[in-house]
């Protein structure tokens, strides 16, 4: 555990220190997010933060490669497959942030990065299902892998709509997934705690934590596509690397559910964004519009419309992510009935906070206090957030 925490700290430090450099580079290359009608930010903001994120991940992985504890992890090509693919999508995102690439070019680049991972043996070859563990055929395995990786990248990109939202959600969800993978490793091989999934999740969480101080409202820099795609790809790579490592046929009945978690946890982490994306596409198609048409009807827009400040809307998303993510991870130690009861109670509390107390004037979570527009003392009623 100490090795993983050290690598997490390294990734966080490198990302934090390199973010100002990425911000200067964004200004020189005019990689700036202008203020559009559907946006919630009110001033042009640099958007190459993803370069700092990938720098933190790469540096931490390079240092990890010299640690004896992780020697077995680096004996295979998988770790370099994930790291190399992360560099590829970071470059793709950089190009998109600077030149605003069309959707087809971005999709082709994402497919190539996912294909590179598969060639480096980061590939879905088994399903966590009793009686049919193996995906029949190498072509189907490749197609399923690419589909899963591209979908995860775009889902993470989809939630990058508020300051600190994507980085915080992936940090929380990644931490929950790390708890799961570390727990599974302890049970499966008590003599060797090293794990590719745990390594990649540790550096992923560290990079997100290092970026958050620069990105939380009011953000000084956005991660852009160069960041959101990297986060999604590393999350997908960690998922693939752990899938199939639990033999369901050898698992007791009461322990069967944790074997299904690897593919479910990433979905749980980005469950709300996935649902929001599906509803958005359906809504636009029903109105006769393009599914790629922009609007202000996304989940985070609706939270703002409920009366939440920018910061409170992000905290609400963090809360729901933690609920679903850690509920999945808890299945490693507790039975599904206990987890279901706890999740139900947590969902009720989260729902009440979503529509209740967190909508009130919370001072430290108010946008005007965060930006220094008003003093954080006894604000007048007319100064309250809508």
Write up what this structure looks like:
The protein is mostly helical and 386 residues long. It is built from 14 helices and two strands. Strands 1-2 form a two-stranded antiparallel ribbon. It is globular. Residues 247-254 and 374-386 have low confidence and may be disordered.
- If strands are numbered along the chain, what order do they take across the biggest sheet? 1-2
First-last Cα distance: 45 Å
Helix and strand sequence: HEEHHHHHHHHHHHHH
Strand content: under 5%
Radius of gyration: 21 Å
Portion of residues in helices?
Answer: 55-70%
Q: Characterize the overall form.
A: globular
Count of alpha and pi helical runs: 14
Report the uncertain regions. 247-254, 374-386
| Sheet with most strands | 2 strands, antiparallel
Classify the secondary structure makeup into a structural class.
mainly alpha
Question: In total, how many beta strands?
Answer: 2
Mean pLDDT: 80
Features:
single chain; 386 residues; mainly alpha; two-stranded antiparallel sheet; 14 helices; 63% helix; 1% strand; disordered C terminus
